[in-house]
Amino acid sequence: MPRMRVRLTRPAFQQLEYWTCRGETAALRRLGVLRDGRADTVEIWAAEDPMEHPTMKGFLAEARRYSELWAKGAFQLAMFGRQTEVFKWDTHFAAEHLRIMASIVFGIESDFQLVHLGEELVAGPLVDYGVGPGSTVLLTFGRPTPPTLWMCSLLSVR
């Protein structure tokens, strides 16, 4: 019997969806894995058997991480191949501040882009780009591109 495993705010779910299951959201809703919760939330439901599948374990671990970030009022800066850095969210946090922090944290002196949900953060408050608690900002080199989804198909988990 399936039961609710993780509840996310809609903004935190948008982050999870972008990075993990973007092409499969409608199918996951039809299967009952993703359900609308109360008070503008999305719930992830699963029975015991799928919980043992590595893909589902990874998906739920990511969901919990985004939920915890949101609960802590924090967002993360990620760079592929490196550990993510977590920052306390503040409405006055600007792209310029994050650029300086990224240079210090990752030791990068060359040109790089900061990208949130496919949009480059150039200047001004992060809130203007939709960055908030539970968000992930990607540090990348070259043109911002859609993410390569790290997960195998969740639809193969039954």
- Low-pLDDT segments: 148-155
Strand content: 15-25%
Shape: elongated
Rounded mean pLDDT score? 85
User: If you compute it from the alpha carbons, what radius of gyration comes out, rounded to the nearest whole angstrom?
Assistant: 16 Å
Helix content bin = 25-40%
Give a short account of the largest sheet.
Answer: 5 strands, mixed
Total domains: 2
The end-to-end distance, rounded to whole angstroms, is: 13 Å
- Compressed to H and E, one letter per element, the order equals EHHEEHHEEHEEE
Strand order within the widest beta sheet: 5-4-8-6-7
Number of strands: 8
Number of helices: 5
Class from helix and strand fractions:
alpha+beta
Could you provide a short overview of the structure?
By secondary structure, this protein is α+β, with helices and mostly antiparallel strands. The protein has five helices and eight strands; from the N terminus they run βααββααββαβββ. It has two domains: 3-72, no CATH class; 74-140, Phosphatidylinositol 3-kinase Catalytic Subunit, Chain A, domain 1 (Ubiquitin-like (UB roll), Roll), CATH 3.10.20.
Give structural notes.
It contains five helices and eight strands, in the order E-H-H-E-E-H-H-E-E-H-E-E-E. It has 158 residues and is α+β, with helices and mostly antiparallel strands. The protein folds into two domains: 70 residues, no CATH class; 67 residues, Ubiquitin-like (UB roll) (Roll), CATH 3.10.20. The strands form two sheets. The chain has a five-stranded mixed beta sheet with strand order 5-4-8-6-7, with helices on both faces. Strands 1-3-2 form a three-stranded antiparallel beta sheet. The longest helix has 19 residues. It is elongated and about 50 Å long. About 5% of the residues have low confidence.
